[in-house]
Specification:
Radius of gyration: 25 Å
CATH architecture of the largest domain: 2-Layer Sandwich
Structural class: alpha/beta
Number of strands: 17
CATH topology of the largest domain: Alpha-Beta Plaits
Number of domains: 3
Low-confidence stretches: 137-141
Largest sheet: 5 strands, mixed
Shape: elongated
Number of helices: 15
Mean pLDDT: 83
Strand order of the largest sheet: 14-15-13-16-17
Helix content: 40-55%
């Protein structure tokens, strides 16, 4: 197997303009060619003008007759067309989406994006056993809004927060999506921005089930030509958004194993891949919002901890905590404030535990802690301390919060599912007991 060059996968139908030209001329080219971007040539360097740059210019009242250099557009990486596609991995980070491809003489040849890379990943090479809900990252670039919100407010928020899309939901179900492509259409048509965003959103929304495999998600994006997949549960309720970038990072480990079978190509790029492997390992193991371990990584650490417990005959306890009335916080103050609450609680937990303990964001407002060398009695004392510290936590606009706790002690023959199940029953008992309290597996009556 031979991986393609960037020249072979690059999009050659690109539009370019000199940086000394006006913003208005660049916008005209974007509209006329129905493109989401324009390459701006700045001497031997290349910059990129995208829809969010136009939104920012509008919000800052910049005159469109000004030259493009006033926008301070970001310089994008450049690669010659003969480079191996795997070398793009060192450039396509969370903050970079475009790579400029040039001929040997340095002239513009095309662009490579996440779309081009994912279109050249063979789904058969991906791990079919992994499902979206194991790895789903709630991207900060995507926001959930109601259909009544004015389009002008959405454009301002997309400009200020560098959002490339917003999801319109109703009764927790995705009703429509408003992306940078819709932004360009609205600006091009001089549409009435005081109308609700539902007037211009793309609807209905193509969705994918949260239980789909990574292979199915890649095929979905390739067949639909989408940059992101809207993920729903079995009832059609909004679960999150997974982007091309995230799928590329998930596919990375499989790509690495394939490359080991192809020593000729590996020799040329191995050093660069090794320098990136740690970063991708972190991406695949952590929750992007809180920085805590995700459920997948926690399950692996649980297996190791269980083996150690059996070898040393030491106690290990598992603790589940759930923020009380978290839905009310989101409904009253919005999801951004809810995210702030989750981050502050995560920081408190990390600062309160020993280095040997393991803390994970289990999902939503639930966190799971694995307390090594800690029996049930000691874990209750720690949980009470955490509960009191959470109650003292002050959060802007929200005020104070509380949390409920359920605890189980690992026993011989336990797997993660059974241990979590016992702790979850104890958590349910804590909720039934009035919340803001600690309950253990011993208090549960089956």
């Amino acid at each position: 197997m031979k991986f393609p060059t960037v020249g072979e996968i690059a999009t050659k139908n690109v539009v370019s303009i000199n940086i000394r030209k006006s913003i208005a001329e660049a916008v005209r080219l974007m509209f006329e060619n129905d493109h989401r971007n324009v390459v701006v040539v700045d001497g031997s360097s290349f910059r990129i003008l995208i829809a969010s740059d136009i939104l920012k210019a509008r919000s800052q009242n910049i005159n469109l007759s000004d030259q493009l250099n006033i926008l301070n557009l970001e310089i994008i990486p450049t690669m010659t067309k003969g480079n191996n596609v795997l070398q793009t991995l060192e450039h396509l980070s969370c903050n970079i989406e475009y790579i400029c491809v040039v001929d040997d003489d340095g002239s513009l040849y095309g662009l490579v994006t996440h779309t081009d890379i994912i279109s050249n990943i063979d789904p058969e090479t991906l791990m079919e056993s992994f499902c979206l809900h194991d790895f789903l990252k709630l991207s900060k670039r995507d926001k959930w809004i109601k259909k009544e919100m004015k389009t002008s407010h959405i454009l301002n928020e997309m400009a200020q927060n560098s959002l490339d899309s917003v999801i319109i939901i109703e009764d927790f179900k995705p009703l429509g999506i408003f992306t940078t492509k819709d932004v360009i259409r609205v600006i091009k048509n001089s549409s009435d921005l005081e109308l609700p965003v539902s007037s211009y959103m793309s609807s209905p929304v193509d969705t994918i089930f949260r239980g789909s495999s990574i292979k199915e998600a890649v095929a979905f994006l390739k067949n639909k030509h989408y940059k992101r997949a809207v993920v729903v549960d079995k009832d059609g309720n909004m679960h999150g958004v997974v982007s091309q970038k995230e799928l590329i990072s998930l596919a990375y480990s499989k790509w690495a194993s394939l490359m080991k079978e192809h020593h000729e190509e590996l020799d040329k790029i191995n050093s660069k891949l090794l320098s990136r492997s740690k970063k991708y390992e972190i991406i695949a193991s952590t929750d992007p919002l809180t920085g805590l371990y995700n459920r997948y990584k926690f399950s692996k650490l649980y297996e190791l901890s269980y083996s150690t417990m059996m070898e040393r005959s030491s106690a290990v306890s598992l603790l589940i905590l759930d923020i009380d009335n978290f839905k009310k916080i989101n409904d009253t103050h919005g999801h951004n404030t809810g995210d702030t609450v989750l981050v502050k609680l995560a920081n408190l937990l990390q600062g309160s535990l020993r280095d040997m303990d393991i803390v994970c964001r289990w999902g939503g407002e639930e966190f799971v802690l694995l307390l090594l060398a800690t029996n049930l009695k000691s874990s209750v004392l720690l949980a009470e301390k955490l509960r009191e510290n959470i109650e003292k936590l002050e959060i802007d606009t929200v005020g104070k919060i509380t949390a409920s706790f359920g605890i189980a002690e690992l026993i011989e023959g336990d797997d993660l599912k059974s241990t979590v199940g016992r702790a979850d029953k104890a958590l349910y008992l804590a909720k039934e007991s009035g919340r803001n309290c600690v309950r253990t597996q011993n208090e549960v009556v089956d």
